[in-house]
Amino acid sequence: MNPALLAAEDLSMFGRDPWWLVVIKAVFCFAFLMVTVLISIVMERKVVAWMQLRIGPNRHGPWGMLQSLADGVKLMLKEDVVVKRADKVVYVLAPIVSAVPAFMAIAVIPFGPAGNEISIFGQPTTMQLTDLPIAMLYILAVASVGIYGIVLAGWSSGSTYPLLGGLRACAQMISYEIAMGAAFASVFLYSGSMSTSAIVEAQADRWFVVLLPVSFLIYMVTMVGEVNRAPFDMPESEGDLVGGFNTEYSSIKFAMFMLAEYVNMVTVSVVSVTLFLGGWRAPYPISTFWPGANHGWWPMLWFVAKVVLLLFLFVWLRGTLPRVRYDQLMKLGWKVLIPVSVVWLMLVATVRALRNQNIAFQSIVLYVAGAVLAVLLLSFVVDMFRERRAKPEAEAAEAAKSGEFDPMAGGFPVPPLPGQTLPPVPRRRPRGERQLIVSGGPDTGSDGKETDGV
């Protein structure tokens, strides 16, 4: 393993801060999330209004910048209604279970270098609350706990639509966390660590978005599904669930669900920045001609700028893409993301194993290209035989469709399948030959016999 990575895994600089500095860091992490949530809510309403040629919020504060704060005050002052059939204890605890874990993941995210780069009231410290050798597993565990708040909220409401929303959230979490974990594993193989500070240090020469583009794309899709944002907002689909899991909630409890959604947006964005976009490191052109770009307080600026760009991506997706169907959501998770992430993880593990054996990069490229060509050739042969086998079946099905359809063949009437036509109705003129028949006219006879017009 690279000695630089072993040095980066030294976490002895953490845990030495005095208690008052730990409190300051914890308050800063909480304030950072809250302020970012307030900004992201206003940004979402402003950007979507701009995309739809509307004005957006423009009443509260300058340019409507205090709209999200006004919404929070309004929700806290509204009447708090508790459903009669609800399980009271779980009904009240569900918003807390959903909101609290959303704040916990930020504790291991580095805002700057791991060394004592800054000083707060004369005390040198790191720009990170703490770090763990298994920090990414901690983030995965915390994110999984937050989903249970949605599931419990749907179950405890005692209503049908919230229950459906909770079940959708559970299925969506299981479907997309598997692919997310595989995307994380590729990063662990390249960085040699699960520590967030070590992962950022491993991207000193090249960001992982360049080395692991497939893992980055998989995580970008799964993080949208994890936070239940459009176009994957199935648990709170207003069109068919009337609000989803939070239908029976109001006042401050509804505000906590809304807060948890936006805090989770910020959390998955900072995780994406840490794993794939170089973390607190300055972008490539800036870091080359400015040696001090990654020192002092500047790393926090680059980190926040990357997070804001990813939050804009969330808003962009919501204002652009329509909501997918639930079967499309499950198909994407189980039939596309999971197989692709597992195959990509095996490929990354193979490359890393060959690199550890000191095999030249050109030879690795040849091996990988040969394996890919062999798989493509095998799939081509399988498809060719499948087409030959399916051709007679398709011809037989076409011949069956071309025949006359008997709706009473099974003893009771059945509707025709696509491609089948009902036999013509007896004593009924074709559509093109129908005409208006005047009462008492010559065509009013029955069975060829004229009537007296009665």
TrEMBL record:
Query: What subcellular locations does the record give?
Result: Cell membrane; Membrane
Q: What segments bear the compositional bias annotation Pro residues?
A: 413-425
Keywords, A to Z?
Answer: Cell membrane, Membrane, NAD, Oxidoreductase, Quinone, Translocase, Transmembrane, Transmembrane helix, Ubiquinone
* Matches recorded under InterPro entries: NADH_UbQ_OxRdtase_su1/FPO (IPR001694), NADH_UbQ_OxRdtase_su1_CS (IPR018086)
Q: Which reaction does it catalyse?
A: a quinone + NADH + 5 H(+)(in) = a quinol + NAD(+) + 4 H(+)(out)
Q: What is its main location?
A: membrane
Keyword Thylakoid included in the entry's annotation: no
- Summarize the protein's role: NDH-1 shuttles electrons from NADH, via FMN and iron-sulfur (Fe-S) centers, to quinones in the respiratory chain. The immediate electron acceptor for the enzyme in this species is believed to be ubiquinone. Couples the redox reaction to proton translocation (for every two electrons transferred, four hydrogen ions are translocated across the cytoplasmic membrane), and thus conserves the redox energy in a proton gradient. This subunit may bind ubiquinone.
Q: Which HAMAP family match?
A: NDH1_NuoH (MF_01350)
Q: What does the similarity note say?
A: Belongs to the complex I subunit 1 family.
The record's listing under PANTHER family reads: NADH DEHYDROGENASE SUBUNIT 1, NADH-UBIQUINONE OXIDOREDUCTASE CHAIN 1
Q: What is this protein called?
A: NADH-quinone oxidoreductase subunit H
